[in-house]
Amino acid sequence: MLRAKKEIYSILYLMILFPVLGFLYFMLDLPKTISFLFVFIIFIYGLFYILSLQRIRVPKFLFPLLFYMIYIPIRTHIGDLPERHVLTQLYYDIINISIFFIIMIIYNTKFDDKFIRNIIKILKITIIIAVVISVAQVFNPDLFKSIVYRSEDIGGYSIYQIRRTSIFGYTPLDMGLSYIPLLSIAIGVIYFYKKKIPVLFLILGGISALLTNTRFIIIAYFILCLQLFVVNRKKIKNIFKYTLTSMFLILLIMYIFSYIGYDFTDWYNVRLFAEGSIEETTRYKAIENFLKFYPRYWLFGNGEFSSAEIKTASRAIGSSQIHVGYLAHLVSYGFIGSFFLYCFWFSLAKKLYKTAKQTNYWGSFFAFLTFLWAQATLVHYSIFFYGLIFAFVFDKYFQDKHNQRMLYMEKNNRANSSKKK
Questions:
Q1: How far is CA 32 from the centre of its chain?
Q2: Nearest one of 211, 198, 8 to 101, comparing CA atoms
Q3: What is the C-alpha separation between 267 and 204, in angstroms, rounded?
Q4: Angle at CA 269, nearest 5°, toward 265 and 270?
Q5: Cβ(341)–Cβ(68) below 8 Å
Q6: pTM above 0.70, yes or no
Q7: What are the tens digits of pLDDT across the range 189-241?
Q8: Distance CA 234, CA 143 (A)
Q9: Beta bridge partners of 110
């Protein structure tokens, strides 16, 4: 096991500051987003990392990803490539390699306590700032307008229709795929060390999630909260206490929302369940399009993110694509590509679950669960989001702590056995 190098710490410190760096990156009018840039940085550093070491342990759960990152570029280039800038196409060709590199580097690194304490402090500050900006955007939708909406006109939209991205406006998906995992990590870590419900951060996180007006984020927030019930699954008294606490928190958050001008009836009708029934949602209607196209491309997929014929069929149901990630991937990359990807996700979830069972730290496992849930509504398969990357960092840290504790106990048992003899 390798001690963390300065380069690894530097990269991770920069990543935890993505909201600030992303803002600067956008204001400098650089191409794409800060995450786009770091895919290339990790790719280059990963190559040097491998070449500079004689022995590297590749975790078993990464092997499906190894096959996937080989299959996808081949399948994509065999098909009709969309017109893209050369760097954009290169990004899509290497992103899974960069994911492979960053996870391999994390699980070959031993993180020290000081680094983890610093990251936890930044996590807490991020959560606090995020909720402040989210609330401010209710009163002033133009706040960070150049970042959140770029040139879009938000006039005519009600406060229940605007998708608020708080401090993550430079790349809107980060609110759901980085902030929510970071919140899960914070909740898990705080409870692990203090054995108390982190009420403040649950409230702050709940406010930020609900103010996004984004359904998958709202549900993801409730998913990550379930970890508090899981860590106390054998303690009926604590489960009863957490149930009452959850009810109190929900009522408190509702009161705060009412205070800042939210009408929950309008919010439900205009945004949360605007379609009126599940059958009218584009996610439900996507199943019909999936059943239409998948039999044609079931083995290898059509090799495209969204072909012209799929776009036409999707527009007919009020969408732009097959709006369920799992189904869209099956059409795009077939049974073979999806088998590799889903095996990787399952293996990674299994790894995070194993650590959680051993340590009773569940933050990283539930962080990844929120990503898996997101694929029921998003069509975005990359896990190169800094919130998820730090979920792996904390999983490795707590795994090492557990292994160190087990080794210490084993040595003590041997010493005691020797004394008895």
A1: 19
A2: 8
A3: 19
A4: 110
A5: yes
A6: yes
A7: 999 998 888 888 998 999 899 888 888 999 999 999 999 888 877 666 666 66
A8: 46
A9: 3
